[in-house]
Amino acid sequence: MKRGFLTVPRWDRRAILRFWVTFVVAVGFAGLVTAAILRLLDEPEVWVGLAIPFLAALAIGMFAVPVHMLPAIVVVILAVFPTRLIPSGGPFNALPPMALLLAVWVFRRLVLDQRSPRLERFGPVTRVGPRLAVYTLAILFAAWLFIAAFLAGGGETELGWSIAFVLSALVPLLVFDAREEVALLRPVLIIVGALVGLNIFIEMLLGFSPVYGIVDVVLGASREFEFSVYRARGAFSHPLFAGAFLTIPVCLAIGGWITTGKKWMLLCGALAGAGILGTVSRGSIAAVAVAVAIALVVTPFFLGWQRITRWFALLALAAVGGLAVLNFGPLLDRADSIESRLSADVRDRALTVAIDAAQYGGWFGTGPGTSGETGRLFDSIVIENSLLQLLISVGVPGLLFFLGFMGCLVLAAWSHRDLGVGMAVIAYVVAITGFNSLDAVRSMHILIGILALLAVNDAREMARPATDVRDSFPTPTSVTAG
């Protein structure tokens, strides 16, 4: 009898199907990216021969690397690759490239069922309750986004913003067990944050970027904005974006040092914190200060009395850091500038504009991504507050769902005694209240997806494989910790 597809053993059939599905998706991904870039270029015939092989190699590469590395790769690209070179127009308004890369990871984990063999040696995921709260709020927020979009008419802006946010921030949660990914993602974030912070601080001291200045020269662009002092930004398109990103590795490093005592984390946190100073971003500095202040309150519950000396060390470092910030020259110069006073005036007016715009939308929002358009009906200023922008665009229900989702991330992280991730979520939320991130900068949505992965997955479980029979029985230490 002729050997056909149906007579092939089941495991071989799965391999064949996975190969062709992978091939089709890789080619489709490359084609989508190529089409989008060619649409933005003035002379596509010049670039088509180069773009297609490069993008095909990139797409296939995303399917070739070990699957657990993909979230960490996304973070590295976001932190070190010049933002202005990442496409953001055309279809990428709804499908940000970083979100597409995470979608490839979700596709490989769920559809192709790819995972590390190491996961098989570990027990089931624990502490389901906090996860359930996170997933419930995620579903409610996603549902409300599309309800608000259709209530507003279902235009390109509303649907595009909703798809971009869900794909970036919520779809990664479809991978229920990402402990191995997080075990790599966390140290990568801390180390990359330290390197980025060091580079940004050096850029601030020099007054130009020795790393990314060449890119700007080639593109014929200037790195300087209309600021009263030089504000470094590294690979990011604005200092505020760089500062908000760096709040995450700073808090991860500080929290990791508090709970583990590893001094290299403290060093990395200091370097990333120096980078925040280099951006001269008062919002990000305040965000870290708020996170550290909350950590001072909750740290005794994480450490216990035996390691309480770290609490005093944190208090001392907070005092030293506060004095350094208060005496930081560029920050003082900016505080005395006309730019600073104008910025403060704009933020004061933003609250009034946001309330008027929210009332205009009946407190149910004028549609995701429309806060800028709606706000201009009442004032010409830009509302530099992401939460006020959400109030306008998705209304009171959407804002409450978002805040509830972020709050559940904090609780989920702290349920498995991860102080650093909880601090990072708090700091990031505080940081984005200082500029128009969520509603206007869709590429920043990916950081919420990264924070969600860190919060719901306990990476420490990957370091305790049950390879010995004795490991299956509780010990006094594990009972106390649990």
UniProtKB/TrEMBL annotation:
The lineage of its organism: Bacteria, Bacillati, Actinomycetota, Actinomycetes, Micrococcales. InterPro entries: O-antigen_ligase-rel_domated, WaaL-like. Residues 270-403 form the O-antigen ligase-related domain. Its main location: membrane. The chain crosses the membrane at residues 20-40, 46-65, 70-86, 92-111, 132-153, 159-176, 188-215, 235-257, 264-280, 286-305, 312-332, 387-412, 419-438. It is found in: Membrane. The keyword Lipoprotein does not apply. It comes from the Bacteria. Keywords: Membrane, Transmembrane, Transmembrane helix. It comes from Microbacterium invictum. This is O-antigen ligase-related domain-containing protein. It is a multi-pass membrane protein. The keyword Heme does not apply.
